[in-house]
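Dear H.,

Thanks for agreeing to be a second pair of eyes. The structure we're designing against is below in token form, covering all 341 positions.
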């Protein structure tokens, strides 16, 4: 069982629930040790005083803020702990936003939040269910390991997921940092329509289990082959860039190649759906969270349970159900049932 890396309380309004935080992901990278070429001697790093050349014990190291000219302001680790905000270990939700409003570049690391004991599960589930029903994300700050973090708290099935976010001043402006960016006028007309068709033809339901790290597999194959004295065949070079003059031809051939996928029968796996000529699948007009909709799900909850996830998602797209791309099959059924009521 995983060990909690942080514990404290989660608050929203006057409601408080003790929680623990756990890492939500794990690293499966193949790790290598550094050796001196031609030997089996490992390379190690040491903390060395650059003036004396002597190794320094970790307990003798303090922090110094460089004032320039060789002058430093010395800060002891304990002094940073004294001024750290949130010493009471509180994740205080200060507002709720739509998840779609947070640009992907702001997301950093994900963690699971769990109730600290059985006696706190009711309050925990109340917040999780409310976030799910409203399709909202809680925004909060908290302190961990001597650093304050901005976080987004969202509902997943049975659990609350906490995302560490980048602060606004940590996100670089692409218009200042990147050497070349296109203008919006560069995409228009029939080429844009065909590109949208291609996106529709390649649209699938998100199933993370269908994807795996092929590069790590190749690394393991390389290690195994070298251990046996064998060679491994190099991968092919990447394809050349599409010539602007042949762009339309490449787009149309791509659409034609994948068009037959729309006729594929439902198998419970990801389904391919092609765009209608009029525009992208799932396009809709925004009518507000509580406004009336022009359409209703085809059939009640009983008939909805007969449909595959792909068919449920298609209905949710036509009805503009918010948050549908992050829903599992049961959540889609509940959302469509609520829309019909």
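And this is the sequence the design step returned. I haven't edited it by hand at all.
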């Amino acid at each position: 069982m995983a060990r909690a890396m942080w514990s404290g309380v989660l608050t929203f309004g006057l409601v408080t629930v003790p929680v623990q935080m756990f890492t939500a992901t794990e690293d499966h990278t193949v790790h290598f040790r550094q050796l001196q070429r031609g030997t089996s001697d490992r390379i190690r790093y040491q903390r060395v005083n650059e003036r004396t050349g002597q190794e320094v014990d970790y307990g003798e190291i303090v922090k110094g803020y460089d004032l320039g000219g060789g002058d430093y302001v010395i800060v002891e680790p304990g002094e940073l702990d004294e001024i750290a905000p949130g010493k009471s270990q509180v994740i205080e939700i200060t507002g709720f936003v739509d998840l779609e409003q947070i640009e992907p570049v702001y997301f950093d690391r994900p963690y699971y939040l769990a109730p600290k004991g059985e006696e706190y599960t009711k309050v925990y589930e109340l917040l999780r269910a409310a976030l799910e029903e409203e399709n909202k994300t809680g925004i909060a700050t908290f302190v961990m390991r001597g650093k304050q973090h901005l976080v987004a708290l969202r509902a997943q099935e049975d659990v609350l997921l906490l995302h560490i976010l980048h602060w606004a001043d940590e996100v670089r402006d692409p218009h200042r940092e990147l050497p070349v960016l296109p203008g919006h006028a560069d995409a228009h007309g029939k080429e844009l329509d065909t590109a949208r068709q291609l996106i529709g033809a390649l649209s699938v339901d998100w199933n993370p289990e269908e994807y795996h790290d092929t590069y790590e597999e190749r690394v393991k194959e390389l290690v195994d082959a070298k251990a046996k004295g064998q060679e491994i065949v190099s991968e092919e070079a990447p394809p050349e860039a599409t010539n602007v003059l042949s762009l339309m031809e490449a787009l149309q051939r791509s659409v034609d190649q994948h068009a037959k996928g729309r006729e594929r029968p439902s198998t419970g796996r990801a389904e391919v759906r092609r765009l209608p000529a009029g525009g992208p699948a799932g396009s809709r007009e925004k009518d507000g969270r509580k406004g009336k909709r022009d359409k209703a799900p085809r059939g009640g909850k009983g008939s909805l349970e007969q449909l595959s996830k792909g068919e449920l998602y298609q209905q949710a797209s036509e009805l503009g159900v918010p948050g549908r791309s992050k829903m599992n099959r049961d959540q889609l059924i509940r959302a469509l049932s609520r829309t019909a009521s």
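Two observations from my side: Strands lie at 6-12, 15-23, 63-68, 71-75, 90-98, 107-115, 136-144, 147-156, 159-165. Residues 99 and 211 are 24 Å apart (CA to CA).

Warmly,
E.
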